[in-house]
Amino acid sequence: MRWLQFRGTIGELHRVDGAFRAELRGLTEALNRPLGRVYQKPCTAVLGDKTCRFAVETDGYSHDLTVASHTRGQEFRWTDFLGFDEGWFARGRMEVLAGPAKGLWSVIKNDQTRSGERVIELWEPIRGSLEADTPIRLIAGCDKRLETCRLKFNNLVNFQGFPDLPAEDWVMSVPRSSSANSGGSRR
């Protein structure tokens, strides 16, 4: 004799104290899958991904150098860092190319010049060991705006945002005869 108690799939598996725990996902789990696109003003692509199609390895958009000094793997300083405008790498990535931390990366929070030194600050510290002269790569940052895509990267054809969407306060507007928001044509 059989008794059907559950129908669905097994999700994530976790090992706890020598046993395992399985997540059961019901038949409606497929409805939680996002479909379509998100319509928002900023670009939804990640710089260099298949929808952005920008080659971040292009000369001028990535820069290989070695670690001069750092504070807890989160703030890096150079005295001889030339050729890039301040803020060029903000919102970009820093990747470790060799050593014990090879393959690790973090997102760049700030790119500034302080007291004659170029300072790159990360959102999260690199969790591996970083010695002086460890090779790293800095990749230019993108703030997801239409102007940045057009002027900094010359990649407007692949912009994935909708900059002409009305702001949220537009939804709350109502026609008024006492001001320019009359609902009629503007002369």
Automatic annotation (TrEMBL):
Signal peptide: none annotated. It comes from Sulfitobacter brevis. This is Bacteriophage phiJL001 Gp84 C-terminal domain-containing protein. It comes from the Bacteria. InterPro entries: Phage_phiJL001_Gp84 (IPR011928), Phage_phiJL001_Gp84_C (IPR018964). Pfam families: Phage_BR0599, Phage_phiJL001_Gp84_N. Residues 87-169 form the Bacteriophage phiJL001 Gp84 C-terminal domain. Coiled coil: none annotated.
